């Protein structure tokens, strides 16, 4: 028996009641390409060697996603009695919360710079910095997401994300932008830029801006972490961060405990 057979069984089980999300299908396709011809009795060491050979330059996070998916396939096969025991598949440790050393004043400096130099990209960057939305969540927004109470950030339909729907109250700057009508057009991204190209194009915009301003290099997803850092700087605790970032579990919020440690120290000193 080959791992390909286990993957097909997993797909059949998962698709029995509802279509499988595209993100899972894509991962299974990669898993099948790399491990499909291997025996179902392969050891964890053999699987790790195949992964390293297939993705020699892949980041630990990428390799982890595929190996976790393969582990789910093997566990399901073991649970349903198709294989006797699933192998122990070790996955790379990934600490994916990168604390960028950017404070509220520096984020304001970045936004001021982009407002004048990149007005096409400014509305999207402002939205990411002042709501903590993931890029996919922001691109899925329309005029109806800008409610009287704040910005409604929703999970992207058909994708498995780690966030839940939430409403983020407006900052003064974001409220002025909404009132000016910059978010009333059909798309949040600049015209002429397809959604698939937004991440790479915006990444280059951020690279140019941070170099010009002498700020640390920022990835697109770092804008979400910068939002969390600004909230903590303003006095938010872990519960506030969990609400604002839409965390689906408290374990996710604990990754930000370093941001609020200084506040705890101050509270203890006052007792």
Figure out the total of helices.
Answer: 13
Order of helices and strands: HHHHHHHEEHHHHHH
The biggest beta sheet is recorded as: 2 strands, antiparallel
What is the top-level CATH class of the largest domain? Mainly Alpha
Account of the protein in words:
This protein is mainly alpha-helical. It has two domains: 3-79; 104-269, hpI Integrase, Chain A (Orthogonal Bundle). Helices cover 56% and strands 2% of the residues. It contains 13 helices and two strands; from the N terminus they run H-H-H-H-H-H-H-E-E-H-H-H-H-H-H. The chain has helices at residues 3-14, 22-35, 44-54, 60-79, 104-117, 122-131, 135-139, 172-180, 195-213, 222-233, 238-245, 250-253, 257-269; strands at 151-153, 166-168. A two-stranded antiparallel sheet has the order 1-2. Helix 5 (104-117) runs antiparallel to helix 6.
Brief description of this entry?
This protein has 271 residues and is mainly alpha-helical. It contains 13 helices and two strands, in the order αααααααββαααααα. The chain has two domains: 77 residues; 166 residues, hpI Integrase, Chain A (Orthogonal Bundle).
């Amino acid at each position: 028996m080959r791992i390909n057979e286990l993957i097909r069984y997993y797909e059949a089980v998962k698709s029995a009641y509802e279509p499988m999300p595209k993100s899972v299908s894509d991962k299974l396709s990669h898993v099948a390409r790399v491990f499909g011809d291997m025996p179902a009795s392969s050891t964890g060491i053999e699987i790790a060697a195949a992964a390293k050979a297939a993705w020699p330059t892949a980041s630990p996070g990428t390799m982890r996603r595929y190996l976790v998916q393969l582990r789910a396939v093997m566990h399901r096969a073991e649970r349903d009695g198709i294989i006797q025991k699933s192998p122990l598949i070790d996955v790379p440790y990934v600490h994916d919360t990168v604390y960028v050393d950017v404070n509220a004043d520096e984020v304001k400096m970045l936004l001021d710079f982009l407002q004048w130099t990149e007005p096409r990209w400014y509305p999207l960057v402002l939205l990411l910095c002042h709501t903590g939305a993931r890029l996919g969540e922001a691109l899925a927004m329309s005029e109806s997401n800008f409610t009287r109470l704040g910005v409604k950030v929703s999970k992207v339909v058909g994708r498995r994300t780690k966030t839940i729907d939430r409403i983020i109250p407006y900052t003064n700057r974001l409220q002025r932008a909404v009132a000016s009508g910059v978010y009333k057009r059909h798309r949040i991204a600049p015209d002429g830029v397809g959604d698939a190209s937004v991440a790479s194009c915006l990444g280059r915009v951020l690279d140019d801006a941070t170099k010009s301003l002498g700020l640390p290099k920022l990835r697109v997803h770092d804008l979400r972490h910068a939002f969390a850092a600004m909230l903590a700087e303003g006095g938010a605790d872990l519960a506030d961060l969990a609400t604002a970032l839409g965390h689906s579990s408290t374990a996710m919020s604990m990754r930000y405990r370093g941001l609020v440690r200084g506040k705890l120290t101050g509270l203890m000193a006052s007792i």
